[in-house]
Write a structure and sequence with these properties.
11 strands, 309 residues, binds zinc ion, 22% strand, 2 domains, three-stranded antiparallel β-sheet
Length: 309
């Protein structure tokens, strides 16, 4: 009987063991899944944080670009010396500023970022915009990382960091105050004397009358444009980089502004900057166009039509 009892106990023990083993396996599986889920969640949070920090960093690039443009263009008009390779100098300056930002991001966000501008050109469709290409790699100390190459468009216009136009300063004998004042005869063509003390602007501001023919609608429009020294898109005009390098012609989509003469005659060199300041026989004559007692322009038919004058 004792033997039987013992046997029963033994069998019961085995039965219990047989039932417990699958339960334990089940528990282990559940715990592992839970752990896996927690790890995944941590990974997702890290990834999201990295994406946010990386995007924040990239949002700094347009302002840094405008600050660099402001520096670079200001230095050229102050030193009156053209740059040899304007885009290269701009890229170097922006990348220097990006390195400072990288240090800040690592210190404050624990995020290791490496970002470099690889190329800059004027936009093919909007000369008041720069096309900036860059590469960025970012990671938190050991884990997840983001790596991407991108192209963005940066507006050249910033009230706080204006872009200066060195074209007239480099091409002609000029004085620089708020505007540019021209001294001596700036062309060899007849009646060039009408440009003694002529003025043009030195900050690049796109004209708000984007339908250019509207300039001719009334005198208020064209006078407002002239008095503010606005700039216009132009296929023959020079882009900002060619202006910085003191070139005479430019293959890019460029810009132009009026140079306001001081004397009235019937015909004189055309009052458009890239025509008037073209020192390799690109200058030509235009007819007088009187806007009011103090303001006149000399325009050829092409520019007259363009501005509806
Ligand atoms: Zn205008
Ligand atoms: Zn150009």
């Amino acid at each position: 009987m004792k033997l039987l009892n013992d046997n029963k106990g033994y069998i019961t023990g085995i039965l219990i063991m047989v039932m417990i083993i699958p339960i334990m396996f089940l528990l282990i599986t559940i715990i592992e899944q839970e752990n896996h889920y927690i790890n995944k969640t941590v990974e997702n949070i890290q990834d999201n944080k990295l994406t946010i920090v990386t995007n924040d960093f990239q949002r700094e690039i347009p302002l840094l670009t405008r600050k660099s443009m402001n520096n670079l263009t200001l230095s050229v008009i102050i030193n009156r010396k053209p740059l040899v390779n304007a885009t290269e100098e701009l890229i170097t300056d922006i990348n220097y500023k990006l390195k400072e930002k990288e240090v800040f991001y690592e210190k404050n966000m624990g995020c290791i970022i490496s970002c470099n501008v690889t190329d800059i050109k004027t936009s093919k469709t909007n000369p008041f915009q720069l096309e900036v290409s860059y590469k960025i790699d970012s990671k938190f100390r050991e884990d997840s990382n983001i790596s991407q190459g991108k192209k963005i468009y940066v507006e050249l216009v910033d009230d706080e960091y204006p872009v200066y136009d060195p074209f007239a300063i480099l091409k002609a004998d000029t004085a620089l105050s708020n505007d540019i004042v021209y001294y001596n005869q700036i062309t060899q063509l007849e009646n060039s004397g009408v440009y003694d003390n002529a003025i043009s602007g030195c900050v690049i501001k796109p004209c708000p009358y984007t339908n250019y023919e509207e300039h001719g609608n009334n005198n208020t429009t064209i006078l407002n444009c002239i008095n503010n020294h606005y700039y216009h898109e132009s296929h023959d005009g020079l882009c900002i980089f060619c202006r910085l390098e003191n070139k005479t012609s430019c293959l890019d989509y460029g810009i132009e502004t009026f140079v306001i003469p001081t004397g009235i005659v019937e015909k004189a060199p055309v009052s458009i900057d890239h025509v008037l300041l073209n020192d390799t026989e690109g200058q030509y004559m235009g007819q007088v166009h009187i806007l009011d007692n103090n303001t006149i322009l000399y325009l050829d038919n092409g520019h007259k039509n363009k501005y509806g004058l």
